[in-house]
Amino acid sequence: MMTFKKILITEDYEAIRDSLISHLSAYFSSVKFIEAENCKEFIEKFNLEEPEIILVDIVLPDISGIDAVRKVSLQDTKVIFMSNINDSSVIYKCYKAGGHAFIDKALVHVESLKAIKTVSEGKLYFPFEIRDDDLYKTNLNKLHGFEFDIIKNRLTRTELILFEKLGEGSTKRRIVDEQFISPKTFEKHIRNIKEKLELDNTNELIGLATNHKVYSSHIR
To answer: What is the pLDDT of residue 213?
Structure first.
C-alpha cells in the first residue's frame, strides 16, 4: 500500500469540501487536506503541493474536472473523480483521462473512503469493469450521440436554454431571475421538457441536463 501525506479536493461547493474533509480527517488524521474550487486553483495547488491523491468533481465553474486533470502531469498521483452523473460513457472518459476511481457524490462519504483505500493499494475503483476494446467505446458513443440529438431536435429555444441552465447547476430561483420569467412559466417549461424527453421526474431531467453539459461543453 502506498503512503500518502496530501490529498487535494477540488469541488466548487464549500459545504461539500468541508463535509468531506471533516469525514476523511477522522480516518487520515496525519494527512494534509488541500482545497480548490475551480480549475485554476486546482492546477496551482497541484503543482505547489504535489499531492499523492486528488479528488475532483467533474463539473467545475470554468472547465470540467476531466479537462483540469488533463492539464497537469499526474505521474504517480492517484485520481478519484466525483460526480452525480452515474453514466457509463462519462465514467469511461474519466478513466481515459487518467482516473483511478469514480465515486457517486450522493454517497461521497462512504465511497471516498473506499476509493482512497483501493487506489492506495494500486487498484482501480469503478462501478463497473473498465475495458479498452473498440466495440465497447463505439456502443457508448452511439448511445449518447442519439440521446443528445433527440434533445436538440425536440426542445424549443427557450426550453433548451432552461435545460442547459439546469445542467450548469442553476437553481429555479436563479433561472427565473436571469430569464425574466415567472415561477409558473418555469414550471410549465419543465413539464413540457419532461414530456418531450419522456422523463418520469425532475431528478431524471437534472441528471440528463448535467450529463449533456459535460459532453457538449467539455469532453472531447
So the answer is: 60
